UniProtKB/TrEMBL annotation:
It is a multi-pass membrane protein. This is Branched-chain amino acid ABC transporter ATP-binding protein/permease. The chain crosses the membrane at residues 85-105, 160-179, 209-227, 247-270, 282-302. Its main location: membrane. It comes from the Bacteria. One of its GO terms (molecular function) is ATP binding.
Length: 604
């Protein structure tokens, strides 16, 4: 039996009962028609929640996938006499193929090129459908048979109502389950930036493609239902306008919220219908005035409530229950099934003093500028090594070379005896190298513990099917037990369900360390961990890092703050103008005239 938070479960059951009652009561036929369309639009908008709201990829082209689902079934059922269920399978297969191919090309685009790309393929497919003789061009295909279910023909809108809403209900459940699973967190991690996600071991291209294909499948399902509801298809309802409309629905509903898809689809459909009725009477003439007025109303709504409708509903609900401002996120499934947790395997740590990291004559040039000039150093198991230097010395560049973010111009980086330069950071994470960021990169709206669970991505295996079906409960419980253990280790155990963004900066930095620890690293790379911290926070951080060293974790620390590093590190490497000018124990380094000249002079 699937377990959700009790409030959510109750909400879902009440909603399902209300939808069922609506379909069975003798409400006017027109209401059923509206409800059917809301259901069809909801499915597409649900895909956009996953793709745009969660994954951060804007698509104007979903109508093309609706068309593929609709046309595939229309052609097979009218042309070959196939069952609509065969049409469904063929349509979804076609959608998956097309989305994989389009996704592989367009998802490489970034910034506004991606939405432009989706517009391009949406237009191409629209005109393709309109020009193919076999699809009867813009006249379209008629005489599509109804869906048969249990020997019963779903002939009327009323018959299809229950099927449409059952599919919407299953779609909602599937997306909710997915988002609360390992592959779902990988998609959510995309919002934190690709460098962050990859550093946690998330294969970002795969995560993007998964969101893209699943969103397309939801759109294709909507198209199949549409074809057998209308019993006719032509290209007109699948144009770019429709693609923009779907995106509007998702945004108006609250683009990051699963239930927002339904709220947006309902609001936009009902508003358009109401205005279509009202405006000609008010203005005394007919025309598409509802498009103009609803456009203006939507701008107003988005200006008043940029997060969309659903967050407003949530706030109102929380206020009614007197839980406004609790700042706590819902318990993820992994925490609700605690009892199932099993310890995750740990990697063997190297013996104290064994070489962990070897940087050999690393060089990085940017055009004519030599940012890192043949720098070499070693780091041994169980030590904290500090990399310091004045502004522009090349520390961050060095950090990026070691962490796999930047390729070297020349030289080598070895990790645990293996050459790793040129390898992506995802692979370094798999090998046991975890990092934090100078400018904290968390998912601020996610709970603290889910952020940490992203760090444990590589310690699980279950994919999206297991996520959707909740067949991943043991693994989820184990990942969350690990995440909780790492939070306890860094002293944030009580903050597990708080929104990550509500923590103070010092705690956010410590949360990043917990996320890095969740990948069971051999080496922690910390990029200016003390930046922006208050004195007490720095002391707490230093105590934490000493504790980790005592537990055998090796640490490479890039830092600006001299006082912070002096009392903490075992050895220092000092850089200036891209060159290593000195290396040794903190006291010796402090006395070194080259260091005083380059860096300490200004501080002492
Ligand atoms: N992507 C880049 N393109 C061109 N030049 C760069 C790039 N990244 C860094 N640099 C240059 O390389 C030099 C070293 O920069 P880097 O950021 O590594 O120094 P840093 O020691 O980390 O400085 P800070 O403490 O200010 O962060 C600087 O002159 C910088 O302007």
């Amino acid at each position: 039996m699937m377990r959700m938070p009790r409030g959510d479960r109750l909400g879902l059951v009440l909603w399902a009962l209300a939808m069922l009652a609506f379909g069975l009561l003798p409400v006017p036929e027109f209401w059923i028609t509206l409800a059917n369309y809301i259901g069809l639009y909801s499915l597409v908008a649900l895909g956009l929640v996953l793709l745009t709201g969660v994954g951060g990829m804007t698509s104007f082209g979903q109508a093309a996938f609706v068309a593929l689902g609709a046309y595939a079934s229309a052609v097979l059922t009218t042309g070959c006499g196939a069952s609509p269920w065969v049409g469904l399978l063929a349509g979804l297969a076609l959608v998956v193929l097309a989305a994989t191919a389009l996704g592989a090309i367009t998802l490489r685009l970034s910034g506004h090129y991606l939405p432009l790309g989706t517009i391009a393929w949406s237009l191409s497919l629209f005109y393709l459908f309109g020009n193919l003789e076999t699809l009867r061009k813009f006249d379209g295909i008629t005489g599509i048979p109804p869906i048969m279910l249990g020997g019963f023909e779903l002939e009327s809108g009323r018959h299809l109502y229950l099927l449409i809403w059952a599919i919407v209900g299953l779609g909602v459940l599937a997306v909710l389950n997915l988002l609360d699973s390992r592959p779902g967190r990988a998609i959510r991690a995309l919002r934190g930036g690709l460098v962050m996600a990859e550093s946690c071991g998330v294969p970002t291209t795969r995560a993007k493609l998964l969101a893209f294909v699943l969103a397309a499948v939801l759109a294709g399902l909507s198209g199949w239902l549409y074809a057998h509801l209308q019993r006719a298809v032509n290209p007109t309802p699948f144009g770019l306008n429709a693609g923009i409309g779907y995106l509007f629905m998702a945004v108006v509903g609250g683009v990051g919220h699963v239930w927002g898809a339904l709220a947006g689809a309902a609001l936009m459909t009902l508003l358009a219908d109401w205005l279509q009725e009202l405006l000609p009477r008010l203005l005394g003439q007919s025309g598409n005035f509802e498009v103009i007025v609803s456009g203006a109303l939507l701008i107003l709504l988005l200006q008043r409530a940029p997060g969309g409708l659903w967050p407003m509903v949530q706030r109102a609900g929380a206020a009614l229950r007197g839980r406004l401002g609790s700042g706590e996120r819902a318990q993820p499934a992994g925490l609700r099934n605690k009892a199932l947790a099993q310890p995750l395997p740990r990697r063997a740590q190297p013996a104290p003093g064994a070489p962990v990291l070897q940087v050999k004559a690393a060089r990085k040039t940017f055009g004519g500028l030599v940012a890192v000039n043949d720098v070499s150093f070693d780091l041994h198991a169980g030590e904290i090594l500090g990399l310091i230097g004045p502004n522009g010395a090349g520390k961050s560049t060095m950090f990026n070379l070691v962490s796999g973010v930047l390729p070297l111009t020349a030289g080598e980086v070895h990790f645990l005896g293996r050459r790793v330069d040129g390898r992506p950071s995802r692979e370094l994470a798999r090998a046991g190298l975890a990092r934090t960021f100078q400018h904290v990169r968390l998912l601020p709206q996610m709970s603290v513990i889910e952020n940490v669970a992203i760090g444990a991505h590589l310690r699980g295996q279950r994919g999206w099917v297991a996520g959707v079906l909740r067949a991943n409960r043991v693994e989820e419980a184990s990942l969350f037990a690990e995440a909780q253990a790492q939070l306890e280790r860094v002293g944030l155990g009580d903050a597990a369900l708080r929104e990550a963004g509500s923590l103070a900066l010092g705690q956010q930095r410590i949360l990043e360390i917990a996320r890095a620890l969740a990948c069971d690293p051999v080496l922690l790379l910390l990029d200016e961990p003390a930046a922006g911290l208050r004195h007490q926070e720095k002391q707490a951080l230093a105590t934490l890092l000493r504790g980790l060293r005592a537990q055998g974790v090796s640490i490479l620390l890039v830092e600006h703050d001299m006082d912070f590093v002096m009392g903490l590190v075992d050895r220092l490497v000092v850089m200036d103008f891209g060159t290593r000018i000195c290396e040794g124990q903190p006291e010796a380094v402090r006395q070194d005239p080259r260091v005083i000249e380059a860096y300490l002079g200004g501080v002492e």
